[in-house]
Amino acid sequence: MAKKNKMKPRELREAQKKARQLKAAEINNNAAPAIAAMPAAEVIAPAAEKKKSSVKAAGMKSILVSENKMYITSFGKGNSAVLEYEVDNNDYNQTQLSSEDSSNIELHGVNEVNITFSSKHGLESGVEINTSNPTHRSGESSPVRWDMLGLKSELEKRFFDKTFDDNIHIQLIYNILDIEKILAVYVTNIVYALNNMLGIKDSESYDDFMGYLSARNTYEVFTHPDKSNLSDKVKGNINKVKGNIKKSFSTFNDLLKTKRLGYFGLEEPKTKDTRVSQAYKKRVYHMLAIVGQIRQSVFHDKSSKLDEDLYSFIDIIDSEYRETLDYLVDERFDSINKGFIQGNKVNISLLIDMMKGYEADDIIRLYYDFIVLKSQKNLGFSIKKLREKMLDEYGFRFKDKQYDSVRSKMYKLMDFLLFCNYYRNDVVAGEALVRKLRFSMTDDEKEGIYADEAAKLWGKFRNDFENIADHMNGDVIKELGKADMDFDEKILDSEKKNASDILYFSKMIYMLTYFLDGKEINDLLTTLISKFDNIKEFLKIMKSSAVDVECELTAGYKLFNDSQRITNELFIVKNIASMRKPAASAKLTMFRDALTILGIDDNITDDRISEILKLKEKGKGIHGLRNFITNNVIESSRFVYLIKYANAQKIREVAKNEKVVMFVLGGIPDTQIERYYKSCVEFPDMNSSLEAKRSELARMIKNISFDDFKNVKQQAKGRENVAKERAKAVIGLYLTVMYLLVKNLVNVNARYVIAIHCLERDFGLYKEIIPELASKNLKNDYRILSQTLCELCDDRDESPNLFLKKNKRLRKCVEVDINNADSSMTRKYRNCIAHLTVVRELNKYINDIYAVNSYFSIYHYVMQRCITKREDDTKQEEKIKYEDDLLKNHGYTKDFVKALNSPFGYNIPRFKNLSIKQLFDRNEYLTEK
User: Quick one: which of 459, 727, 549, 594 has its CA closest to 71?
Assistant: First the structure.
């Protein structure tokens, strides 16, 4: 056995210095640093040019430590991990675990500080790359990196019922906790949007009626609490509980009457059959109650109660909830599957005619995979980007205007041929492309890889693309549409999915997509798929013969034993879920919101709306204005988002603030501003400065009025058509600017939602190890955790929290911030975060800001005005002082931000990132691309 190469002290210091320099260079070069195993800080979003770690680009996936062994893995196919090497931490002897065919990296050496390796396939194959040895930190040897929060053991006991001397279990755990964080954000936003649909009321409990819904009650209990026996289900005052249920039921009916659930595509059936109507209401109640239950599970620490735990409650509550989830999923699959062949017969006929090497049945099955299951999205690269590269470089004729009316169909067929190439004919080429993309360091390198691949594909598919284009004329398509398809739908029986194929957790996630827009659906599902895929890989490694560590999950987390299945199911959910079109029954409500957001008084009567838009009149050519409003406002996803998260009248008020509008316009790229200016301004001066152009656009948004559009003709020609197109552009710009403002404030709030979620979770964990917290209630004072941990450092140096223990200067700063706040302030702050109060109250305070230079400053100024709002029972001296500063300076107070964030002070990196504008604003904001 080789002797351990023990370094001399000077050599060790030099090696550590070099490792720190390499790490610093890596962080400076990386736009998206990897998430640490422990929750040291919030992840910083990428900078303008996206770069990946050279370690990741070279193929190393992870370094896992278990007792005296270290396991190095590389990226395999997809997201799979290949066990490459086992290293003895005592003498650094290494054993290769991977076969020659599966190996992606070569290990050159390991010492106390560094691990040196090279890639076998990409990133300058053979070039040595250094990464730090995770078993050595700042001169102290240990099997795992520091647990700065001091919660590693408690988390392991919660998830596995025992502790481990490794870093494998904790990494798996933090992937699970990432799932809870992302759900905390989306469910908080959904709850707010649903409450917001009720309109503006004075009662906070009315505004948060979703917070009072529980999946523990059946629909019968919800509708008739007096006839139900609740004594076995609830503790405390039965009459009070029944009173709350009655209040929630009344509010639920108010919500149905608003018709605003139609914005989520939920539509009450038009029928005189009360059974059908009641069945719809029952399903809606189940959906809202499940959302409310998820919110309780992720916003409060419910891990000890299986009937409230996020991963188990859906299998324990009454079966009527699961029946609703079955109904929703089956309804979607039925709408997709019903008459699939007949519905796609034109494209299928063309493909059968062109793809001579395929059986017709096989083409139909592959096309179902492509259209419904969207298997092309699981290839690891973009078929669409490849086709775009091919046409940009070689296929100029296919961009001709003659194909405008059939372009979507033509591109779909081209994409299908490329999909079949990689999915069925040349799988090896697809895997090679994925590997090249993984090894790329920048976006420019990726673009080059796509361009090279497109060049190879062009020679192979040029004739096929020409053939498709030749069939793209109206007569051919019309004839194919009339032809009969002599194929039985049963061909697809083995491919078709239904609700019984999917676990209830996945069905629950599908249900959440009812309340999200397309981008939100994609972001949520992409994140969940990534996390479940990671968890699946960790479990696979832990169970492997080489590693073989215990991985028996506790009762509340057994769901993750099915991570592979859930990953596959969530792929399906992602592909079948989509933003739903607003329900037709809500049209009058939507017209009211549309006219209000364009400047009409929101007190306008329904009869006046009908009169303006001629909703009750019949005849040809009289509905031009109605159709214009429908096409350019109601059917805009940005309008729908604004109504979900804001209020039409309030949006109009905020839009009158030129400073705010100019700030948002400043975040839109100059080239886009040029296009908006040219299309929105009647007599544009294209030689004017960009500042002048933005100023003119801001003025137009400020002065927007319904009168500007009431004479627009939908079927217009000549000058009238020019005016119509200009009106469309102005509305599009207006909705875009307001969308960017609201969306970015919602995104700012999301980071504080995550902090509240982590505070609730960590408080429950610390209670298990700190006796002083055992009798405490976080709701009474949200500062209590940070305060107690600081006191333990000061009094007995017994705090398990190394962030505070090892940094006395910053700990003293946190203590000052704790003393500058009080329990009522931080409680209100927490509630304002949970209820997105900044978005709701934006119109009240935004005109008082002198300088608008960041979404962070807008958010905290409005938040601080909400916190300091005078109330009869709160006249604290500190609160009044902060209010005086706000009114005097017309901007947020930095010390007040830190005081309000003092509950997060136990995690110093998170506290700093949430309190200091420069650190917070490293996160990119949403802009118009």
Answer: 549
Residue type (1 letter), 29: N
CA geometry: angle 919, 924, 927, nearest 5 deg: 145
Q: What is the pLDDT of residue 499?
A: 79
Q: Which amino acid is at 598?
A: L
3-state secondary structure of 251: helix
Closest C-alpha among 745, 655, 755 to residue 698:
655
Q: Which pLDDT score is estimated for 471?
A: 86
Task: State the helix-helix crossing angle for 274-299 and 238-258, rounded to 10 degrees.
Answer: 120
Kindly calculate the radius of gyration of the chain based on its CA atoms and give it in whole angstroms.
Answer: 30
What angle is formed at CA 759 by the lines to CA 758 and CA 764, rounded to 5 degrees? 100
Q: What is the pLDDT of residue 305?
A: 66
Cβ atoms of 340 and 372 closer than 8 Å: yes
Closest CA to 901 of 814, 795, 832: 814
Determine the residue type at 843: N
pLDDT digits (tens, 9 = 90+) for 643-653: 999 989 999 99
CA 203 vs CA 195, 251, 445, 447, 829: distances in Å: 12, 12, 56, 54, 18
Mean pLDDT per 10-residue section of the chain, whose length is 929 residues: 49 57 44 32 37 79 90 87 91 90 89 89 74 69 68 94 92 95 95 86 55 84 79 62 86 91 89 91 96 88 69 91 95 84 84 87 90 86 94 89 87 95 91 86 89 94 92 78 71 77 94 94 94 95 93 94 95 86 84 93 85 86 87 93 92 94 95 95 93 96 91 79 91 97 96 96 94 91 95 81 90 94 93 94 92 93 88 57 76 93 96 94 64
From 79, 21, 26, 52, select the one nearest 538 (Cα to Cα).
79
Distance CA 472, CA 461 (A): 17
CA–CA–CA angle 76, 80, 81 (5° rounding): 75
State both tokens at 418.
């490329």
The DSSP string of 128-149 is -EEEE-TTEETTEE-SS---TT
State how far the Cα of 609 lies from the Cα of 591, in Å rounded to an integer.
7
Q: Which residues contact 572 (CB under 8 A, 6 or more apart)?
A: 373, 497, 502, 506
Order of strands across the sheet that contains 114-119: 105-110, 114-119, 129-132
Q: What is the pTM of this model?
A: 0.88
**How far, in Å, CA of 679 to CA of 37, rounded?**
50
Encode 834-888 in three state secondary structure: HCCHHHHCHHHHHHHCCCCCCHHHHHHHHHHHHHHCCECCECCHHHHHHHHHHHH
